[in-house]
Amino acid sequence: MDNLQMDKLCYTLKDDNMWVSVKKFEIRIYTTDEGVVVDIYKGSENGACGDALASTYAFDNECEEEDA
Q: Mapping DSSP to helix (H, G, I), strand (E, B) and coil, where does residue 38 land?
């Protein structure tokens, strides 16, 4: 399973956060009371290392439909 590859792979985050390893990066996806945050860290043999290299977020209200 080291090289698991699938054409379409979808996950639904059920807990408050998850970690994903991609290439040499460790990526944390987590919820807040206002939305979702994604932080990207340099990976190491022990997992994430140091401060986040990049971070982005989205607010829950950005997914709400506008009244017509």
A: strand
Tens digit of each residue's pLDDT (9 = 90 or more) over 8-66? 677 777 789 998 888 999 999 999 999 999 999 998 877 777 899 999 999 999 988 76
Q: Which domain holds residue 56?
A: 17-61
Q: What are the distances in angstroms from CA 39 to CA 4, 36, 50, 57?
A: 23, 10, 12, 9
CB 35 within 8 A of CB 57: yes
- Number of separate domains in the chain: 1
Please name which of 36, 18, 35 lies closest in space to residue 27, comparing C-alpha atoms: 18
For residue 57, the 8-state DSSP code is: E
| Radius of gyration of the chain from its Cα atoms, rounded to whole angstroms | 15
